[in-house]
Design a protein that fits this description.
mainly alpha; phosphotransferase activity, for other substituted phosphate groups; Four Helix Bundle (Hemerythrin (Met), subunit A); CDP-alcohol phosphatidyltransferase family protein; single chain; CDP-OH_PTrfase_TM_dom; 13 helices; transmembrane helix; about 300 residues
Amino acid sequence: METLTKDTQAPQASAFQSSLKSSDTEERIDIWFYRPIGYQIALFCAKIGITPNAVTIISIFFGVAAGILFYYQELWINVIGMLSLVFANSLDSADGQLARLTNNKSRLGRILDGLAGDFWFIAIHVAICLRSQNEGWSALIWVPGVVAGLSHIVQSAMADYYRNVHLFFIKGTSGSELDNSRDLQKEYDALSWSNHFFPKLVARNYLNYTKLQESFSPNLQKLLGVVRERFQNGLPEWLITDFRAMNKPLMKYTNIVQFNTRVLFLFLWLFIDQAWIYFLFDIFVLNPILIYMCVSQEKVSRHFYHKLTA
């Protein structure tokens, strides 16, 4: 009986692992909480035929609803918003896991996935600004609200980019979602506004997003240029091993500036009815972490660029 149980559990564990990107880039809260929930949602969606993009769109409604519920000062309403945001992030986890389980990955899915988080936090920032004004703050509260929002966009963009760079070096193109503006520009130029309005609009926004990521990582761009030129048939084992060893410690910073850390503190300040502190946390705590993350990644990239070109 014990053998049968183990035999049953092994394929399930293997399927769960295959739904993850990489243990290097996964945060512990995600592994323990969001990924198991997302996996069950992904299995259910695969069974009834719901696509990953549909799951992403559903997550937008729950995330935006959470932001709206944070406008109110009643704690019980805020708690419902917290649960809604947690469920939105579970769906956000599920869409990627579903895409990997069903081999239904697409660039549009990646773009929607990024936009989903932006919609959530736009709603949250607007709600906190309006809530603060109701509490007696002047319209100047919108200044840190907007600055924190722009900071969040850059933080999330760079964290996502560095994760995909790490996956590119340890798994290759099949295991990462790493794009570059040169190829995206060609695809954008091939589309016409008259015949492909929506695809061209999406391509324009994604091109701008990728250029933003590349502008913060000049040494990394030089390294990727050399790697793509020299190793078109796959990276050498020494480069995979050495890059992983040096770059893996930086992955914890990509997790800090994304969802879990900021949301835990957001919930704390909602509980004590001081939601405005979230803006200061974003600007004065997460931005320094972003800077350290970018500087450290550039040092790693410069090291391997010199090693490859020496």
